[in-house]
Amino acid sequence: STARNADLPRWLDWFNKSRPHSALNGLSPFSRVNDLLRTHT
User: Fold this and answer.
1) DSSP secondary structure string for all residues of 20-32
2) Are 6 and 14 in contact (CB under 8 A)?
3) What biological processes does GO assign it (predicted)?
4) Cα 9 to the chain's mean position, in Å?
5) Which of 34, 36, 38, 39 has the most CB atoms less than 10 A away?
6) pLDDT tens by residue, 9-19
7) Domain containing 35: what range?
8) Has residue 30 got a pLDDT over 60?
9) What CA–CA distance (Å, rounded) separates 20 from 24?
């Protein structure tokens, strides 16, 4: 639907950057990716 498509970018931002993930000890997936990039550069 149009409403879903309009909200998708905001939801994806939350899902990847803000959402705490239990397998990452409460960190967001995005914070883990940033750490990996620093570790392997």
Assistant:
1) --GGGTT--HHHH
2) no
3) DNA integration
4) 12
5) 34
6) 999 999 888 89
7) 2-39
8) yes
9) 8
